[in-house]
């Protein structure tokens, strides 16, 4: 009987102790992650029945591969959180973009950790993490590397069908004949360079009577969209998706047919001095994109999950 009393006392005491503790949780996590914005917003709450003292909150940009330096992390030091209270924290990752972390291109997940240093003793330490998976993406942005002035095609000794670039993310770039509107074609050159009219980001690639083909089958995820930016300062263009149409579309890029091979083709176009610039978006299962022009530049060829 005495033993029972002691046991119940211990039981009640432990309930009281456990029940009288803060419990920090990550309640909500929203992420906006695109070319312009890289933001996460988390709601941190104390769902326990005791006020919490000082603790940290980490927003981690999980990378693959992990950067040797400049791992993206936003840290908060919270002076305290009353029982039943919640706070909203905003983390802006965009200022953390750096060559060392490949400008945040390897971030595939945002993880929010509340009290990672164990500064607050909580009734539940196993509900302090929330993750947000980002849509996987693989891009070719034309460097550097390679350096400005890099040539492909005829002056580089290539022949149609040569693979001239294999990006670390698995995208392969080939060179092919450019096709005339009236039939027949030519195999001239492509050149990595700063564009004559600003568009894209940094270096771009000029195709001068040569087609580039991008093969996305090695990126390691199913591709549902491909996007690129272009600058068109004259002549006409070629466009092919997954080997269609045969031999290839030749005409003004902005007048390209849609769909091609079951993939929706959307081309935007705004005027710039001497021509136009815009975006090509291919929506669907894209394995291969072939594109080229005459006074034509492209940049940021991106495959998305
Ligand atoms: Ca907790
Ligand atoms: Ca804790
Ligand atoms: Ca670029
Ligand atoms: Ca054109």
How far the N terminus sits from the C terminus, by CA atoms, comes to 66 Å
Number of domains: 2
Poorly predicted regions are none
Helix content: under 10%
Please tell me the overall pLDDT.
Answer: 93
CATH topology of the largest domain: Jelly Rolls
For the biggest sheet, the summary is: 9 strands, antiparallel
The shape, in one word, is elongated
The counted number of beta strands is 24
CATH class of the largest domain: Mainly Beta
Task: Please tell me about this protein's structure.
With 305 residues, this protein is mainly beta. The protein has two domains: 113 residues, Immunoglobulin-like (Sandwich), CATH 2.60.40; 167 residues, Jelly Rolls. The chain has one helix and 24 strands. Strands 8, 9, 14, 15, 17, 20, 21, 22 and 24 form a nine-stranded antiparallel beta sheet that branches. The model has no long low-confidence stretch (mean pLDDT 93). One calcium ion binds next to strand 1.
